[in-house]
Amino acid sequence: MTEGDLVEEAIRLDLQEDLLKILEGSSKYFDEMLLLDLDRHSRRLRSMALMHMQFMVKFGYSGPEERHIKVGKIIHSNFPDYFSAWKLAGTPGVSPILLENMIRDLKPEWKKI
After folding, report:
1. Distances in whole angstroms, Cα of residue 65 to Cα of each of 6, 80, 90, 108
2. Between residues 36 and 110, which one has the greater pLDDT?
3. pTM listed for this prediction
4. N or C: which end of the chain has fewer CB within 10 A?
5. What whole-number distance in Å separates Cα of residue 99 and Cα of residue 108?
6. How do the domains of the chain map onto residue ranges?
7. What is the spatial distance between Cα 92 and Cα 8, in angstroms, rounded to a whole number?
8. Please, which residues have CB within 8 angstroms of residue 56's CB and are 6 or more apart in sequence?
């Protein structure tokens, strides 16, 4: 199972908030050392994935189309293309082992394919 597949599995299992916490660095499944070695392109992908996940959690939308939601004077957007690119790049900034551990810990019935 690829890193991107693990992310999709976490979303399928309704673990979006937990995945967001990893990207924000507020989860026990976050490894700060992974951020130190990221090049600027990987940092940008990770940053855009973070914004995409924030949108997904806040507005409950995880579809493939780009969306914009205006709240007051602020326009919130998702970034499905960047999110897909982040997954294809191997989810820079997120450890696949720790992500798999998170899924196993929070969904003990889960079986890796």
Report:
1. 21, 7, 22, 32
2. 36
3. 0.92
4. C
5. 14
6. 3-106
7. 15
8. 11, 16, 20, 62, 78
